[in-house]
Amino acid sequence: MTHPLRIALAGLGNVGAGVVKLLDANADLIARRAGRPIEIVAVSARDRTRDRGIDLARFAWVDDAASLAARDDVDVVVELVGGSDGPALTLARRTLAADKAFVTANKAMLAHHGLELAEAAEAKGVALKYEAAVAGGIPVIKGLREGAAANRIHHVYGVLNGTCNYILTTMEAESRDFTEVLGEAQRLGYAEADPSFDIDGVDAAHKLSILASLAFGARIDFGAVAITGIRHVIAADIAEAGALGYRIRLVGLGEASAKGLFQRVHPCLVPIDHPLAHVTGSLNAIVAEGDFVGRLLFQGRGAGEGPTASAVVADLIDIARGATGPAFAMPVAELAAMPAAP
Ligand code: HSE
Predict the structure, then answer these.
(1) pLDDT tens, position by position, 73-87
(2) N or C: which end of the chain has fewer CB within 10 A?
(3) 213 lines ligand 1 (CB under 6 A)
(4) Same domain, 260 and 205
(5) Tens digits of per-residue pLDDT, 39-57?
(6) Alpha-carbon Rg of the chain, whole angstroms?
(7) Is the dihedral of CA 239, 240, 244, 248 positive or negative?
């Protein structure tokens, strides 16, 4: 095998720790599939002393995450810090400017700055990859960017937030109260640092704007997403919907038509025989309809340590194999500036 792919990891929360564990547990298999070993060389996080159940002594520790971009012993920087701006964005810009590949799970940053970062990656001929940013472990980015790349896609929609789905489906199954279940989802590690991003639909909207860009060949337009969250859904709504043959899900929906790009996130009444009605707990599911392939359904774990780490490492394997290619399936200059449909 040839030289290893050398990784710097910024952020050692659930997902960061999961990436370390996965690269340890499946090192041989990953090296065989990637064509070379994938090795972490440096890490950065806020708290050096916290016990994460992993041995960090073998990696260089860096206090200032942004300095990872400048290291000569690093080929790829993985950003698991979060936040649309601040340290994550600084790290992204510096990494790409330093001709290094960048892997992120940061949907907020991509929703706001994805086009700028994709342009920077294109200019340098390096990879910008973000499978973990949308729907956790589900390979929907790869599915749309590669598997369905030959299709015109008119609709993309789905359950995009594990926290909301966990809350709604637990309320449904156990007739329990919203706030009580929210606390549980937070303890399980699905919720964002600011859980209002989850329950107010902002996280799902970030993900939808990324999916819409990929699916429709459009410039990301997060500001045009109409957003309503689940804060006001009560157990009685769920019971009444059930009596009428529906389940309530927070759905993100994107549609491209002659009127423009239509993007919205809100609680939906989903007929009981629709696949989305059977998406429970932290599962996510995405439906995309292509003109030649027909209806695709992607389903799996949309949040949590293992599934999200799986997506991050999938991106690393792609990079180890030499994949670059445009982040949003076509060069940024080719993406259409679609007007927001009324
Ligand atoms: N807070 C997100 C969710 C995490 O609940 O889906 C995964 O993006």
Answers:
(1) 999 999 999 999 999
(2) C
(3) no
(4) yes
(5) 999 999 999 889 999 999 9
(6) 20
(7) negative
